[in-house]
């Protein structure tokens, strides 16, 4: 004689409810990701998917979300694109940061590099102060070799 386990209908309903909620969450997440991919593909193809011709194309486009596919679709519809990605307008804060970075780059391009390594004499003095005889001897030998190389 075998005994069958009959699932509790209340537990099954809770599981089903949980699965439905998870499906709902995943569907919303998928929609967000799809909209982002679509917007990126249109911008990379040179169209603004929120205004003008770009919005009309985006509304009727059902293909793959790549710049090439969007450009091909637009061409099939008789719309030419520059093929250049659409450049986002910068906020005043972003323009200020970019201008500051440009000034910094200009200053750095003409600057003389600063050697932050301590001189060999400083390293020898530190080795002596630390009582590290081996390091002191090695550094003195390196200094002597460098001097001999300069003398030719």
Topology:
Elements: H1 9-45, H2 52-60, H3 67-76, H4 92-109, H5 120-130, H6 133-151
Helix pairs in contact: 1-3, 5-6
Q: What does the model show?
A:
The chain is mostly helical and 152 residues long. Among the domains are: 10-76, no CATH class; 120-151, no CATH class. It has helices spanning 9-45, 52-60, 67-76, 92-109, 120-130, 133-151. Helix 1 (9-45) packs across helix 3 and helix 5 (120-130) runs antiparallel to helix 6. The mean pLDDT is 80.
Helix content: 55-70%
The computed structural class is: mainly alpha
Q: Please give the radius of gyration in angstroms.
A: 34 Å
| Discrete helix count | 6
Low-confidence stretches: none
Strand content: under 5%
* H/E series: HHHHHH
Terminal CA distance reads 103 Å
**General shape:** flat
Main pleated-sheet profile = none
The tally of strands reads 0
Q: What oligomeric state is this?
A: single chain
Mean pLDDT: 80
A few lines on this structure:
By secondary structure, the protein is mainly α. The chain has helices at 9-45, 52-60, 67-76, 92-109, 120-130, 133-151. The chain is flat, with a radius of gyration of 34 Å.
Features:
mainly alpha, 152 residues, 6 helices, flat
């Amino acid at each position: 004689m075998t005994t069958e386990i009959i699932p509790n209908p209340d537990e099954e309903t809770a599981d089903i409810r949980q699965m439905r909620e998870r499906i709902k969450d995943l569907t919303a997440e998928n929609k967000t990701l799809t909209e982002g991919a679509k917007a990126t593909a249109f911008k990379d193809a040179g169209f603004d998917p929120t205004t003008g011709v770009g919005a009309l194309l985006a509304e009727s486009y059902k293909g793959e979300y790549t710049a090439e596919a969007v450009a091909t679709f637009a061409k099939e519809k008789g719309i030419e694109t520059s093929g250049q990605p659409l450049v986002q307008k910068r906020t005043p804060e972003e323009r200020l940061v970019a201008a500051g970075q440009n000034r910094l780059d200009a200053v750095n391009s003409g600057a003389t590099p600063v050697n932050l390594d301590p001189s060999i004499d400083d390293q020898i003095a530190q080795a002596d102060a630390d009582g590290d005889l081996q390091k002191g001897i090695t550094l003195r030998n390196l200094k002597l070799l460098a001097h001999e190389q300069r003398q030719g």
